[in-house]
Amino acid sequence: xxxxxxxxxxxxxxxxxxxxxxxxxxxxxxxxxxxxxxxxxxxxxxxxxxxxxxxxxxxxxxxxxxxxxxxxxxxxxxxxxxxxxxxxxxxxxxxxxxxxxxxxxxxxxxxxxxxxxxxxxxxxxxxxxxxxxxxxxxxxxxxxxxxxxxxxxxxxxxxxxxxxxxxxxxxxxxxxxxxxxxxxxxxxxxxxxxxxxxxxxxxxxxxxxxxxxxxxxxxxxxxxxxxxxxxxxxxxxxxxxxxxxxxxxxxxxxxxxxxxxxxxxxxxxxxx
Length: 272
Ligand code: DGL
Known about the structure:
The protein is an alpha/beta fold. The protein is built from 12 helices and 11 strands. It has 2 domains: 7-97 and 212-260, 3-Layer(aba) Sandwich (Rossmann fold); 98-209, Rossmann fold (3-Layer(aba) Sandwich), CATH 3.40.50. It is 44% helix and 20% strand. It has helices at residues 18-27, 49-65, 76-89, 98-108, 120-125, 127-135, 148-154, 161-175, 193-200, 209-212, 214-220, 240-251, and strands at residues 7-12, 33-37, 68-73, 94-96, 113-118, 140-145, 181-185, 205-208, 232-236, 257-262, 268-270. Helix 8 crosses helix 9. It starts with 6 loop residues before the first strand and ends with a strand. It has a 7-stranded mixed β-sheet with strand order 4-3-1-2-9-10-11, with helices on both faces. The protein has a 4-stranded parallel β-sheet with strand order 6-5-7-8, with helices on both faces. It binds D-glutamic acid.
């Protein structure tokens, strides 16, 4: 669909990417943003590399059809396995969250001991390990998949006692490794940031994809006209109500334009 102004396209496996959307919206108030959350096929974390690549191609095609000028892969799992494929397939700039997150982590770490947490797919891909070692081979990296964090964030249990127990279970090991930086390598994890910081202690820097990607976006954007406030358009592939509820919590907005899309072999857009 042709628009007056080309938008920044953002996709994620579901609601988690709203943490990335929120930072983009804050930093670029005059840009239109189109967000697609693949709520019908979430989670991507436990799925195979090829399935995630396939979904990511479909998501990108959809955003391009909606007339975006760049695609931000907010999802770490998708960035880890599909960024290079998408870059080769499509002509517009495609940005992933792994490299900016890795660069940020290396920059803030003083003792070169970095922890990385993410979904099974992200950790299995070793994308963060490889990228961090490309920047600085001397960094010692400890990584761990924390799949339950995704459900806790989706349940809205950021402050629930169970969340604190699960954080302890997953992250206790890191405490003995003397890391000074922890990469929150999944879009959902910033939702649990306060509880994670409390457990790890204030001396550990938490690095998240949401803030790390902003300077990459800035370098792609040409100077726009700062006249009209940017518009937000949201698309999901299922569970609109749940998305609305979580989006209201994360973004603190009441009214937004949401449409349902079905991607796959036969796909349609049902504008609500
Ligand atoms: N959005 C995913 C990521 O950042 C997390 C949720 C999922 O497993 O789909 O890796």
